[in-house]
Amino acid sequence: MDYKKAGVDIEKADSLVKDISRMAKETYIDGVIEGIGGFGALFELKKYKNPVIVSSTDGVGTKILIAEEMKKFSGLGFDLVAMCVDDIVCQGAKPLFFLDYIAIGKLKEDMYLKIIEGISKACKFAGCALIGGETAEQPDVYPEDGFDLAGFSIGVVEKKDIIKKIEVKKNDVVIGLASSGFHSNGYSLIRKIVKEKGLSYKENYGFGILGDILLTPTEIYSPIIIKALKNYRKHIHGIAHITGGGIEGNLSRVLPNNLKAIVFKNSWKKKAEMDFIIEKGEVEEKEAYKVFNMGIGMTLIVAKEKQEEIMKFFNENSYKAYLIGEITEGNGEVELR
Question: Which of 161, 179, 207 marks a domain boundary?
Fold first, then answer.
């Protein structure tokens, strides 16, 4: 009896290391001392006077099951990186490096490399290094075609530049950046609707093949927000990544207790696929805004006098920006109108 007969192919995993290392090295940035290959990856902080490390971890969730259904895996890497780097930028941090964890029932080379390639491309887009990771072949824990993904991102910000709730002021405004779709939230509900309403992932319902649209990669906002912070740091008072919990659940996390955000629901263009899923699933509006991002993937609270200039900046850089709300006296909550 050997390990391979038990379901774990060490030789196959080892043979893929060269491909992984090649893709990872293409993401390396200044500061990487040693990446994939050692027991621990090494990264040197440079040019910071009082650096504060910011970290985030996340996964892709049951969006994985739609990727399995469609046999399309490359976008999952973008999802994984985006969910982490777009979290840490909310506190003003620049992503430095990323690590992945892939647990899989049986290692399949083509699928595996597509996922890693997606992670690598996303890291290059985000300007951070894919510096390490772990692949765990776990027969019996996962079915042969089953797997799960987790990601870990580390960023840095000068202590004086950390974005804090106290900066948010009455009469500030809320800018929303358009999402690329559902991102990586709400897929358990989406899958239930598709199943119970007899929908097909392979069918075009007027906005594209449903499965392909649902696999649209999560938008990565961190590079453009880092640029915005260089230009408008004094005028950007809060940033909220719209993930699980929707606009209400996430924007409220950056509000002080004495203020509230009023968000106007008709101030941006909704996604056709979201309207379709909500209608087919007979999802109540309140529930929809709690589960989905509803077309807004990132929000920024900014000084009113700079709103037009900041919106112009995002729009000119191919990120659709909407003026979606305002800050008033309140109790730290978000009111949808």
Answer: 161
98 and 143 belong to one structural domain: yes
303-323: average pLDDT: 97
Give residue 28's domain range: 10-161
What does the alpha-carbon distance between residue 337 and residue 319 come to, in Å, rounded to a whole number? 24
Scan for tokens 């690329």, then name that residue. 180
User: How far, in whole angstroms, is CA 187 from its chain's centroid?
Assistant: 14
- Could you tell me the sign of the dihedral formed by the alpha carbons of 65, 68, 70, 72, in that order? positive
Q: At what angle do helices 222-232 and 74-88 cross, to 10 degrees?
A: 30
- The pLDDT tens digits for 180-217 are 999 999 999 999 999 999 999 999 999 999 999 999 99
Does pLDDT of 2 surpass 60? no
Question: To which residue do tokens 């598709």 refer?
Answer: 194
If asked whether residues 178 and 103 sit together in one domain, one would say no
* CATH classification of the domain holding 153: 3.30.1330.10
The distance from CA 212 to its chain's CA centroid, rounded to whole angstroms, is: 18
- pTM metric for this prediction: 0.93
Q: What are phi and psi of 186, to 5 degrees?
A: 85, 10
Domain boundary pick from 161, 178, 196: 161
Of 11, 54, 18, the residue nearest 36 (C-alpha) = 18
